[in-house]
Amino acid sequence: MSQANPEAFNLALCEFLARAVTPFHAVEAMASILAEAGFKPLSEAENWQLQPGGKYYLTRNGSALIAFVHGANAGPELGMRMVGAHTDSPCLMVKPQPEKVRQGYFQLGVEVYGGVLLNPWFDRDLSLAGRVSYADKSGAMQTALVNFQRPIAYIPSLAIHLDREVNQQRSVNPQTDILPVLTQLPAGDSIDFRHLLAEQLAAEHPAIEVDRVLDYELAFYDTQVASLVGLNGEFIASARLDNLLSCFTGLQALLAADGSQSSLLVCNDHEEVGSQSAAGAQGPFLRSVLRRLAGGNDTVYAGLTDRSMMISADNAHGIHPNFADKHDDNHGPKLNAGPVIKINANQRYATNSETAGLYRLLAAAEEVPVQAFVVRTDMACGSTIGPITAGGTGIRTLDIGVPTFGMHSIRELAGSRDAWDLNRVLRRFYDHSGQLFPG
């Protein structure tokens, strides 16, 4: 359920981050929270019978989710208040034939997913989680999630004695340098990784009968849980803050909304690798749902998109006290100084003056401070699902984010106040009645 104060909010956020170790686990956790709050599951393959005031959710690929409220006072055709985020984070994923034995150590070959900051992955207690496809005893294919939970792997650094220049210059070869060590093996022994997965499936899901593992999508993750840090608990440190913090914040805002307006939360997968997938923002998931909410009528759909707005929530770069020169002098967001409007003249962010102006009005009503981020003109700018959603649907879009340190590291840092403040503004946005924009 929705959290009523910042302390409870951050506690629930930490619990969510501990559960959401992969996009599949994130969607499973969000679906569980929505069902507990009275949202009804829908299937894309079935006919929908939606009721005014009804609350619904659906998933795609097990890694993307849309939840929406059919407004009690305003149907979807009068415009949707939408929030978007993404479930994936940069990580190390296991290759299809990963087994390696070197110097008597059993290791797994990994592939880098997204723009990983690799150096922080060394010397961490790692576990493994994801989705496994398997054949049951009848020969039918099934899928299930696995999470080893305990530390089972480690990527040891090379000692400074063997690399004296490491503090002056260090590069990481992703093919050779980051293979996790899982165990030691006697000479001549080997481990079948798929057999190991079958044993883990049986341990986690005693009711299923696994004949053999067919394939998998598995990622390593840091077992250190999220925590509040700082002399006064000013910060929250965790893996996957980018962008599960936004998924959780949007979810809590939707749960706290009064349900009078038609509102929607979309959490896409694959943002970190370009969003071009069935579950990504470049895929048809959101457009398909919006068209169904418009009853398949092109004119109604055009009116729905024209009257709607999307807030794309994705973490922003906070100004680092040790590297302040990496920011524009006037656009260095600080942690715990409010969510950040993200602006780029070249449309790497989808913010325009209308969407930014509306957000500033909503934030002022909640007495939430607002910051702005523009990348240095001599540096390249990242992007989000915001421009993709705006370009694919024509919906006015704002890019917003909580300021963060260490983005794409195995462990990131955000202010313990900012997510709560963003949640308050998003809730007001969901409840905002009447026309969103003039004209």
What gyration radius follows from the Cα positions, in whole Å? Answer: 22 Å
The count of β-strands is 20
Number of helices: 9
| CATH topology annotation of the largest domain | Aminopeptidase
CATH superfamily of the largest domain: Zn peptidases
Care to describe what's here?
This protein has 439 residues and is of the alpha/beta class. It has 2 domains: 6-89 and 239-431, Aminopeptidase, CATH 3.40.630.10; 91-222, Aminopeptidase i, Domain 2, CATH 2.30.250.10. It has helices at residues 6-19, 23-36, 193-204, 241-256, 285-293, 298-306, 353-365, 385-393, 418-431; strands spanning 40-41, 55-60, 64-69, 81-86, 91-102, 105-113, 126-136, 141-147, 181-184, 210-222, 227-229, 235-238, 263-268, 309-313, 316-317, 340-342, 371-373, 396-401, 403-405, 412-415. Strands 1-2-3-13-4-14-18-16-17 form a 9-stranded mixed β-sheet, sandwiched between helices. Strands 8-7-10-5-6-9 form a 6-stranded antiparallel β-sheet. Strands 11-12-20-19-15 form a 5-stranded mixed β-sheet. 45% of the residues are buried. The mean pLDDT is 95. One of its GO terms (molecular function) is metallopeptidase activity. This is M18 family aminopeptidase. InterPro entries: Peptidase_M18, Peptidase_M18_dom2. Belongs to the peptidase M18 family.
